[in-house]
Amino acid sequence: MELLETLEEFGLNKNESAVYLALLQLGPSAVLAIARHTALKRSTVYLILDSLIEKGLVVVVPKEKKKLFLALPPSRLEEELDRKSNLIRQALPELSALYRSETAKPSIKFFESSEGMLNVYREITKRSDIKEIMTFFSFEAIPKKFDENYELFIKLIKERRVQVRDIISAPPARHFYFEQLKHASNYHVRLAPKESKFSSDTILYGNKIAIFSFKKHFALIIESDDVANSFKSLFELAWQSAENFRI
Prior knowledge:
CATH architecture of the largest domain: 2-Layer Sandwich
CATH class of the largest domain: Alpha Beta
Structural class: alpha+beta
Order of helices and strands: HHHHEEHEHEHEHEEEEHE
Mean pLDDT: 89
Shape: rod-shaped
Number of strands: 10
CATH superfamily of the largest domain: Endonuclease Chain A
Strand content: 15-25%
CATH topology of the largest domain: Endonuclease, Chain A
Largest sheet: 8 strands, mixed
Number of domains: 2
Helix content: 40-55%
Number of helices: 9
Low-confidence stretches: none
């Protein structure tokens, strides 16, 4: 990388870099000499020198009736970099707090179409950081064209050994989902009270909640620690009151 580019990476603009390099080569110099060396107008050089003085990289050297300008040693650049780094380090706790407060705001994603909804199931079951998944759903509410979702969960439970707990309403007499999972020790299912009916599929995973509406044909993902924790607390209450179900 050329010196001009290096100085620009440091934070000087092109003209500031040119003037600073010129002063390093010329030593104490008048504005006219700097202007000639850099091919910049004298009025421009004056403005640039003021900026470099403010940044602590150039000083004025009085000499008789002339005003000369001197570049401070290049080590001053390193000192300035250290100063900026220290400022950032000191401000980091406050900056991080601002970042956390912003990222704590719920993120909502909306998916329409059958393929979009299936992609949500795929995204959930491909997550490598998920240790447990909790769901509320009804077999009768999920159309047959979404059977891929069951296959994805079977693979998740049997091959990746993720813990899954389902609370279901109106269990079918037979279903391949249950047939595949009846010997899986990491799969648990309970029955919601008879008066309860789930017309959607709700899945809790990590700090997200996915809600599928098959009648309105959309899926919604809410990402929020607070909202996810609240839903998980509701799930635990429902789990305690739900009836054990033998596959």
